[in-house]
Design goal:
Layout: H1 5-33, H2 37-56, H3 64-83, H4 96-106, H5 111-115, H6 117-125
């Protein structure tokens, strides 16, 4: 026999939500009933003003082509930006230190010579 437990949980949750909403409505209605006449009148005016603004807030179809034109311009700009060829890389001047490294790497001397290079430089300075 199949269990109806998931269905019962969904039904219980829907029932609990309905009870909660009824309680919230009841509490709100009671708090509105306790308001004075001036506040109720002011809230009513604000509500009607908001509804009127909503009715008048519909945009004119005259502005629609301008929005499309702006969107097309942005789209063309993005396509041009991403398809642009990168500029040629700037060639930096070669530093003297880099040239020394190239000399060391391209030399045909043994590595043992470079291990004792400081000694040979010291020796050359004291003669």
């Amino acid at each position: 026999m199949m269990s109806n437990e998931p269905l019962n949980l969904a039904t219980d949750a829907a029932d609990a939500e309905a009870v909660f909403l009824r309680q919230v409505r009841k509490d709100l209605d009671q708090s509105c009933a306790a308001l004075d006449g001036y506040t109720l009148s002011r809230l009513n005016r604000i509500r009607h003003a908001a509804l009127e603004r909503k009715r008048q807030g519909r945009r004119s179809p005259l502005l629609l082509p301008f929005g499309g034109l702006a969107m097309a311009s942005v789209l063309v700009f993005c396509v041009m930006l991403f398809n642009a060829t990168p500029p040629e890389p700037r060639r930096l001047p070669v530093a003297a230190e880099q040239l020394e490294d190239i000399d060391l790497l391209s030399a045909s001397e043994e590595l043992e010579f470079y291990e004792d290079l400081e000694f040979y430089q010291w020796l050359a300075g004291h003669q």
